[in-house]
Amino acid sequence: MPGLRERKRAELSSRIEQTALDLFERDGYSAVSVRDVAEASHISERTVFRYYPTKADLVFAVEDRWMAMYRSEADRLETEKLTVTELLIRISETISEFIENDPAPVLRAFDIIQGATELQAKQAGNQAVWNELVADSLDRYFATRRESLVVATAVMGMISHSVQTWGRSGGTAPLGEMITAGFETLAMAFAR
Q1: Domain check: are 65 and 49 in the same one?
Q2: What is the pLDDT of residues 87-145, one digit of tens each?
Q3: DSSP 96-150
Q4: pTM for the full model?
Q5: How far apart (Å, rounded) are the C-alpha atoms in residues 18 and 55?
Q6: With the C-alpha atoms ordered 113, 133, 76, 164, is the resulting torsion angle positive or negative?
Q7: For the CA atoms of the chain, what is the radius of gyration?
Q8: Are residues 100 and 5 in the same domain?
Q9: Which domain holds residue 46?
């Protein structure tokens, strides 16, 4: 159980993030400054920057949590004897469950990103980071890093497409089913 300091830190971080998302949704990402977020959160700009080094980090905080959760799950899965297909399915299920368990922050961030070109560029950069993370998990299955990256990029492209489709539907499309169908499509393509 986290101590008082950790709980207060988490509460403040959440308050800053929620305030920022509220402002970005209401006024638009480009129109809101870190100063605006600080004032609305009743804290100093310096405190905002202590938690979120850039304005974009306020929007991508949810994805940062996914990455941390993914790393933890990948470390755990490394001890299991899984086929590459089983590993990829588990990775996808982990991402899908994380999103479906608390879709609101993901949908909020999705809408804000869609309206801000500068955030779309950061999202593309994050996709490259995801490809590397998944390739790290695949390295034990392939002879070269290149092979791991090719498979990781294909899988993460499919997952990204599924999440984008889910986001455009307002979270109503069945994300888990779309990812499963995507795996089936990739399997058929690789079997040819």
Answers
A1: no
A2: 888 888 888 888 888 899 899 999 999 999 999 999 999 999 999 999 999 998 999 99
A3: HHHHHHSHHHHHHHHHHHHT-HHHHHHHHHHHHHHHHHHHHHHGGGSSSHHHHHH
A4: 0.83
A5: 13
A6: positive
A7: 18
A8: no
A9: 1-53
